[in-house]
Amino acid sequence: MWFSTSEGSRIILIAASIGVMSVSLVWTMSRSGIVSLMCAVGTFAWLMARRRDVNPATRVVVISALSGVLIASLDWRGADRLLQWFADTRHLESRFAAWRDGWQVVREFPIVGTGMSTYPDAMLFYQKNVLEFWMTHAHNDYLQFLAEGGLLVSVPTTIAVVFLVITVRRNVNEARHDRYEYWVRTGAGVGLIAIAIQETVEFSLHIPANAVLFATLAAVAVSRTHKSGRRAAIVEAVERCPNAHEA
Fold first, then answer.
1. Rounded to two decimals, what is the model's pTM?
2. Cα 33 to chain center, whole Å?
3. What distances in angstroms separate CA 50 from CA 32, 57, 228, 242, one per listed residue?
4. What is the distance between the alpha carbons of residues 21 and 185, in angstroms, rounded to a whole number?
5. Exposed/middle/buried for 8, CB within 10 Å: 0-12, 13-18, 19+?
């Protein structure tokens, strides 16, 4: 068999969860959400293809299932309607216009910014390109963070993000010999990547529920279990000393 009954049930449950999530997300017609989902599914497929301990048949089944779920959810919403929605560039053009206003704030206050949570107030004076709405958010959390915090806040935050990436990468490598630990941390990391992609055109992390989700994924990704760390150390020692078992 390709996988045990319990493993098969788990895969079916995961596939069903992904299907419900995909359909729900696609029906929101959120372009940034759909793109982030496609990136996440593509990343998972790539990681699955790289895992040497995954049975080839299982790999084909999982990758096909992920692709099928994504395609089915897109088709259910209507491929023609989605293509027309993505082809409409008016919203993207308004994003560019809003970013120009936000960048002007960055140029005026590059060191300390205008102060955290002051972007709506700053737009009362610097909003020049989008006049239909009061842009209380930059629709790009990176730009808004830079405008509000300047280099004083952005530089330490960037350093923290770099350390986060290094830590997640280290934990994933340590857990590579334990499938459960590996996929839990990899899943959390892919979730963080999807959020990071969406933040380029949205302000999702200003919503408390999304912020809690981000914090939860980060906590899972950086957590280190004694079990996985010890197992990785033992395996590495055996790999370095292939004749150790003869002693």
1. 0.78
2. 10
3. 27, 14, 20, 24
4. 20
5. middle
